[in-house]
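job 3f2a | input accepted
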Amino acid sequence: MTRTFLFTAFGLLCAADAAFAQCADQSAGPDVIVGDLNGIGDYGSVGSISAYSLGTTSCNVGDTELQWIASLPKHPVIGQNMYRLENGRFELLGFSWLKHGFTALQGSLCCSCISAGTGSRLGVGCSDPYGAGLNGSQSGLGPRFEVNAHTGAFSYPFFAQGATGDAIYKRIQVSTADLDPSLHPTARYFAEGHYIAPDDAAAGNGNNNASYREMSVGSFSGGSWNLGFAGSTQREKPAIQAWKDVDPNVRLEYLQVPGEGLFIVGSLATDNGDGTWHYEYAVHNLNSDRSGKSFGVPTAAGVSVTNVEFRDVPYHSGEPFDGTDWTLTLNPDSCVWTTVDFTADPDANALRWGTLYNFRFDADLEPRLTNATLGLFKPGTPGECQVAVFAPVDECTTYRYCVSSPNSQGVGARISTSGTLSIADDTFQVDVAGAIGSEFGIFFYGPQEASAEFGAGVLCVGAGATGLFRLLPPILADPSGAASRLVDFGSPPAGSGPGLIQPGDTWNFQYWYRDPLAAGGSGFNTSDAVSATFCP
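job 3f2a | predicted structure (536 res):
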């Protein structure tokens, strides 16, 4: 289908254009989204915990019918989350077990519906409403631990199928105090629905399955706060996007693990007015089965780091995961939070799919962009990924941004740098891995971050007023798809005039390469990008 790619300094997003809103250009394959959050169920409280559920209306915006077979693991499961935004902090308050779909109606909420003629499939362009009562029905709720959100696979019959319990069992569990307007007078609240379906995932359409809607908090009665909706459902936007939608100073990065799921990392730096800055991070695992095991933020030498905090959200109702807080390590050059290793405890408190964890501290140095490191919990390659965030680091630094698109031989090309950022040292080098083996490519750079469809990839570097500059001659990648180029600061195009790399400059680098078998027939693709600020 035709997509419009949006890129600001806050990451690459894939947004639907006007034609897509009418489903005139469907995704390839089945593609389930949350077309509407249609209601809120309230079940009172047990002790200090209140229970809720969210109604969701799904839409199939793909060009193929979506399987909805109740008696087999070939139907969607539906997750429900609630969040709070308060004083620059975006936090997950609670989540539900998963509603297992059992039959699909054939409505027309999002598009013109071509009915499947059966409840065991959701037709092309069709919608299916599940009210808050259905999504809060305990007997039909299954655990998250049985679901691989990246592949869409899950166990069926599921654990505790048919089981019921007290008012909060399996439902969204939120501390009653977390919703109290007298304790949180400036807070805003958001609901999120999220569908996981095996055939949607197999078609590569799993990254747009969550949507959010703002909520309002009313009176207190029956042991809980009365919640309502404010505004409309923001389709294909997970709730963490609300943080950025409310505050443009938030930086969001969409981090696709090569060959696996998607994390969304938000960062915000706020001046405390006393010579220190508050650094706030939220990491949302949308659908990565490998999960997160560590989060490390670089700090400059000599920086004082104080008021360090970590926040997760407790699992409940029999999910097997340990809830022990992550361990903090303050290194001379970083602040790192870590959970127990997978080999020691497969049920450790990893950052699993459908959850959001927070990390925060104060520091006595102003923010700059650099790369944080997200370590992955389950074994695999890579073992960690880097993502651009605000952090208290020295002026000369690098960070990666944008995305690399899959190529005809793998998950896509990834750019990095080596050497130093010192102009005097003259050892700065750009490197790439995962391009097409034994094919030519070119490193290039420019003054701006950007985003535009470009061949089978994305053009992440903007020309600005100076233009783009190629590092010639072209390079022949080795058989594995790796290539490198030393940036000679004294040679063209950086020798004089436009393109001259000088101390204090920030330039953005990317790699273009031939891919004769590229999707769409363009014959070429691109890596992600890296931004570098240079020193004397």
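job 3f2a | Residues 1-22 have pLDDT under 50 and may be disordered.
job 3f2a | closed
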